[in-house]
Design a protein that fits this description.
With 256 residues, the chain is of the alpha/beta class. It has helices at 25-33, 74-77, 84-87, 96-104, 127-136, 157-166, 199-204, 207-214, 227-236, 246-254; strands spanning 9-13, 38-45, 51-53, 111-116, 149-154, 172-176, 194-197, 218-221, 240-243. It has an eight-stranded parallel barrel, surrounded by five helices. Mean pLDDT is 93; it is low at 1-5. Bound molecules: SN-glycerol-3-phosphate and calcium ion.
């Protein structure tokens, strides 16, 4: 119901990536220390099939490496510096396994949103590997009301469908940058129960959040960094706010 978003979950987008280099362990630990309810990360497969937390297809923007992430082995990626481009301090590659371990050791329940970034056509599917790792961490059969646990996200209906096959009980978010045809009624594809509109889409079409909520879906909005956008999310009663500045969002929601 609109107007109740003091209960919105706050997620650190790529960690606390406003302050620290995205997808580094330090960025995630900062998000947790800043009071986030959970964290968001993007995952890709290395050449030898390891899940690594990197947003871009290529290495150049966030590391001192070159070329495609999927062409490098884990050992090769671990030689690179993923910190200096942002904070002038080196940082090593983060694997999803390490992130899940850090979350487990955090001392309080936390949620992890995992966005699969691997190619959905032509390349190797990432979702079977993700499902196997979640099984190993006992995260593949979450309780519905558990404040910890993992949620999978994708812009790709094909990726959502694959995840439904390989780990049917893991909740799924259908991410949207623009309004997809056929979504006007609020029905999400492939059993996703959470809609994930970008903040630009939400500004243009706030009624989308209302329709999704009316149908009993969650609404997780990204990437919400500014006071006016936090206010919009609050007013619409969205259920999750994904932000580069989770501590700031938390403060803005708490002063209400
Ligand atoms: O949380 C969803 C959001 O992360 C999607 O966009 O490009 O930041 O992965 P992107
Ligand atoms: Ca993402």
């Amino acid at each position: 119901m609109p107007g109740t978003s003091s209960e919105a979950l706050v997620f650190g987008h790529r960690g606390a990536s406003y302050d620290l280099p995205e997808h580094t362990l330090d960025a995630y630990l900062r998000a947790i220390a800043d009071g986030a309810d959970g964290v968001e990360c993007d995952v890709r497969l290395s050449r030898d099939g390891h899940l690594v937390c990197v947003h871009d297809r290529r290495l150049e923007r966030t590391s001192n490496g070159r070329g495609l992430v999927r062409r490098q082995s884990l050992a090769e990626l671990q030689q690179l510096d993923f910190g200096s481009w942002h904070s002038e301090r080196p940082a090593e590659l983060l694997t999803l396994e390490r992130l899940l371990g850090a979350v487990r050791e955090a001392g309080r329940p936390l949620r992890v949103l995992i966005e699969t970034k691997h190619p959905t056509r032509g390349g190797r599917a990432i979702e079977p590997t993700l499902a196997a790792l979640l099984k190993r961490f006992n995260l593949d059969r979450p309780d519905r009301d558990d404040p910890a646990g993992v949620t999978m996200m994708s812009f790709s209906p094909l990726a959502l469908q694959r995840m439904r096959v390989h780990a049917p009980q893991v909740p799924r978010v259908f991410l949207m940058e623009v309004l997809p045809p056929g979504l006007r009624g609020g029905q999400l594809p492939y059993g996703a129960r959470i809609g994930g509109p970008g903040i630009g889409l939400l500004r243009a079409r706030p009624q989308l959040a209302e329709r999704l909520l009316e149908r009993g879906n969650g609404v997780y909005v990204w990437t919400v960094n500014e006071p006016a956008d936090i206010e919009l999310c609050h007013r619409l009663g969205v259920t999750g706010i994904i932000s580069d500045r989770p501590g700031f969002v938390r403060q803005q929601l708490d002063v209400r």
